[in-house]
Model the fold of this input.
Amino acid sequence: MLQEESDLSLIIAQIVQKLKGSNLYSQLERQAWASLQRPEIKLESLKEDIKEFFKISGWEKKLQNAVYSELSVFPLPSHPAAPPEHLKEPLVYMRKAQGSWEKRILKSLNSMCTELSIPLARKRPVGEQKELLNKWNEMGTDEPDLSLFRPVYAPKDFLEVLINLRNPNYENGDSLSFRTHLGLIQVPLKVKDIPELKECFVELGLNIGQLGIDDSTQVPPELFENEHVRIGQKVLSEQDSAAAQQYIRQGSPTALRAELWALILNISSQPEDVLYYEQLKTNVIQHDLLVDSLIYKDVKLTASNDDYYFVFEDYLYQVLLCFSRDTSVLSHFAFNSASPPKSYIRGKLGLEEYAVFYPPNGVIPFHGFSMYVAPLCFLYHEPSKLYQIFREMYVRFFFRLHSISSHPSGIVSLCLLFETLLQTYLPQLFYHLREIGAQPLRISFKWMVRAFSGYLATDQLLLLWDRILGYNSLEILAVLAAAVFAFRAVNLMEVTSLAAAEAVLADLSTLKVMPLLQIFLFATVT
Amino acid sequence: MAGKVKWVTDIEKSVLINNFEKRGWVQVTENEDWNFYWMSVQTIRNVFSVEAGYRLSDDQIVNHFPNHYELTRKDLMVKNIKRYRKELEKEGSPLAEKDENGKYLYLFVSQSNKEAYVISLYINNPLLIGGRKFDLRLYVLVSTYRPLRCYMYKLGFCRFCTVKYTPSTSELDNMFVHLTNVAIQKHGEDYNHIHGGKWTVSNLRLYLESTRGKEVTSKLFDEIHWIIVQSLKAVAPVMNNDKHCFECYGYDIIIDDKLKPWLIEVNASPSLTSSTANDRILKYNLINDTLNIAVPNGEIPDCKWNKSPPKEVLGNYEILYDEELAQGDGADRELRSRQGQSLGPRAGRSRDSGRAILTTWK
Done:
């Protein structure tokens, strides 16, 4: 009991410290001062009266949302004496693997730099700055020569690294047993099985209404949809983050989704935020970064060719170029196993005073990175809001999909979860695919790394991302991947090569995700 | 009785020919006995021309109405709408209402511009998505004008400009910005062969519902349906409702930034060329569903049939307006297409569950 109490006070202390530096704190302070003018505030009961005032005026709700946001994002400290690396990643061998992977990426970036004789960063001449400012809304029409640029890495390179991960303290033994894991990932992390997943995703159960299932045209809206929409509107009017997060587990109505996501992510688009975005835009105009070309190339290769997202090409540049320069993103590295790459001012290699993070936000984009932003363009058409939402989604979720860690939502755990589900509940399929040289993870990896963006139809993708926000976890990606394999099992059993298996799973655009998930979790005999 | 349908066409497009062949129909020439002729608009002129025309027999169907130009030529459509409006005014219909300046509130037409090749209705505040201008292409099948029976294809699409839209005058010279027809876009530098600059109507709907809300989006789509039905009602009285004819029109619509739709033009011969793989599939299915409705059971047609196909064959079409159903049971069954005041509820369920068409546009 005492331990819990001291844990709780530690958490409270941390949250208070974080919020004290925030804009909300100064706003609350201002409000408290202003409230002294009000007649209901009496000197004798000052504290209670102000608290009451905050409750009525909705400021308490805002504070609640901020606290909830901190709780959702910041991992709880395991032990007050734990060093900061443990917050990033508690397991040493994972930290080491992430470190070597980062060295490789940076090496690749630097060699591209040297080969092409392009500096990592340079200040734009005034003429070029003017030109870019004029073209800001249509950077897509620009056709710079990108043929010499290659993406720094692609998901399949990253997969190879994960396959080679080993825990030096874990001895598998040479003999095969029923416990041998037949998949590609060979590290012993704890993942959930179906009974545990059922408990976790209880709102997806068969007897609970879902958007994505119970709002189809055959179902009369009086049964579920109308009431669900009404509740959603109420949640929005109450402006309660925690309620919104609970609500969205059953899916969000399309008209309410943009606001609900903003509420859950605690994004409120204050003038300061717009100003901050404009500041980033100025940074883009003034300086050119090598990663900009990587971003251009990625957008041109992926989003521009996508049936749904090609329309938003220009928005993607506006978001991603600013993102690269946003140093506030650096704060998430406190709980990310990755660390921002360091670079040195020319001629001062090794001198710490001349070290800078490169790119300024510490995130090097890889092939497909722009697909994290693309679906958001269906919800937000104002660039600074779109930007804020993306940034928050990144520091809460997406970073875990391309860094090596033991976190349950990290890509390593997701891969292991996927393979374990398949091996346990579809053993015949798994064995067959393995025999023909088509390890299932080789096909599903790219889906999970991109959180299925670009593979599912947009309306389905948004229903999936509703649940990611609702459960504050990416595990649903692994479950969906397994459910897709289960759905196409009959065809997959007949193929005899990796290429044929890829062909069976090439087109996911007709899939309806919620029925697939529901059947896999709740209607499959285990 | 069971002979194979004999078909002719003067439009060499695979989406057509594949559909005929999959039904086991037999290709013949136009001089032979044919049952089904998918013809170009030039040919329909010949068939029904005063000098060289010929009578069609009961087992022959063609894919155009003889005087479709009443709808598809902009100047004639304008004339018909004006006439229709005057009739509505005489009947005291609310659709003929005018505002305080004497301008019609609904059903108004563009002024000027007799040039045939320039868009007659130039809107300078089009709705932009991702900063780009686009127009909507919708397919509408009319099986008969009196009684009016028309179907809307659910899978229409948006055609995006490849070049950014800016209202500045220097851009007016850029042909690619303002004319969004794919045939022209195809020659712009940024044309993409995977998506062809096209979006499905369901994407549009998702985007609008997410960014503008459900009510205004439903209202927009209701208004689009309304415009189409009005245009058909306007020409119905002057249309030669030949029983051998049906027609599949391509409607081009632009949406402005207040989410109001504007009819640009109607095509009697919408393009059957495919610019992308998705396109080819769409057009193939379009022809397939059209033939299922126009030529029931794929058998030799009999023009005396009532042109009322069962629900199951509609495919991706849904009933847009059925005058017979709208008249209601027991009411005067004799069909007079001039009864403008009772447009009636739309038959058949659609995504906007059962709401009467007219309630929302005010």
About this structure: The interface with chain B takes residues 137-138, 140-141, 217, 221, 253-255, 257-258, 304-308, 310-315, 377-381, 458-459, 462 of chain A (CB under 8 Å). Chain A has 24 helices and four strands.
